[in-house]
Design goal:
The chain starts with 10 loop residues before the first strand and ends in a 9-residue tail after the last strand. It has five helices and twelve strands. It is α+β, with helices and mostly antiparallel strands.
């Protein structure tokens, strides 16, 4: 039974939809409450970060989106993706045999390969502010598509067992509610937890920006705003968006 106060107390389910984020955003625009969830068995146009598509096979992935209306300052909204990624780590850790880590801002790595991703989309107007947290997890794929087999992994491949998706969803919603409470009331600990799970800290990374340019430097940390801090040519620089590449070595948090 779901042990939450509000996250997941209202759920809309679809066998198939274009995107759970789209359905959740429509619900939010019509007054959907914080914690409301949209879940689909498959989606035809799932979105990932930086315009990518999230591919989820029917019955194999866990695909859902949550409406959130967090009571935090605007300057702290950048921590929402980080909190969401941590919630995935919290829920998945007991189920798998390999180490989990986070790649900034919110890709979840299992044994150094991607097992889950988070896409946060938000709206702010004169009279409201809300966001939708979309989460996609490779759960029960026995093998990954050939194009992804070196970079992606499913939970089943690590656990060597089928994982019941309804049970995993309940655990994720409970973990997300806990991390949202932390976002509102204890952001110092939230950031400490995130930094401890961050992959590549202190190492040289590449960051591809939205304009296609690539910046290379040392991953120096994550700021209170959620921005990435890199040391580039002896100067500390801050980035609020981009795609981190950790190189060919599969790094995980120590």
């Amino acid at each position: 039974m779901l042990q939450t106060n509000y996250v997941g107390q209202q759920i809309r389910t679809f066998e198939s939809t274009d995107s759970t984020n789209v359905r959740a955003m429509e619900w939010a625009e019509s007054g959907g409450p914080s914690g409301a969830v949209v879940v689909a068995d498959s989606q035809t146009a799932g979105r990932g970060r930086l315009g990518r598509r999230w591919e989820g096979g029917e019955g194999e992935s866990l695909l859902f989106s949550v409406i959130v209306r967090p009571d935090v300052p605007d300057a702290s909204m950048g921590l929402l993706p980080l909190a969401s990624g941590l919630a995935v780590v919290d829920a998945v850790t007991p189920l798998v045999r390999h180490e989990l880590a986070l790649k900034w801002p919110n890709d979840v790595l299992l044994a150094g390969m991607k097992c889950a991703g988070v896409l946060v989309e938000g709206v702010r107007s004169a009279d409201s502010r809300w966001a939708v947290v979309g989460i996609g997890i490779n759960v029960n794929q026995e093998v990954m598509p050939r194009a992804l087999e070196q970079t992606a992994i499913s939970l089943r491949q690590s656990a060597a067992a089928v994982i019941p998706r309804p049970v995993l969803l309940a655990s994720l919603l409970e973990a997300l509610e806990s991390r949202l409470h932390q976002l509102e009331h204890d952001r110092v600990t939230l950031l400490d937890d995130y930094r401890a799970a961050l992959s590549g800290f202190g190492r040289t990374i590449s960051l591809r920006l939205a304009d296609g340019k690539t910046v290379r430097g040392r991953l120096a940390g994550v700021l209170g705003s959620g921005a990435l801090e890199m040391e580039v040519g002896g100067t500390l620089r801050q980035f609020s968006a981009g795609d981190v590449s950790l190189g060919s070595e599969r790094w995980v948090a120590s």
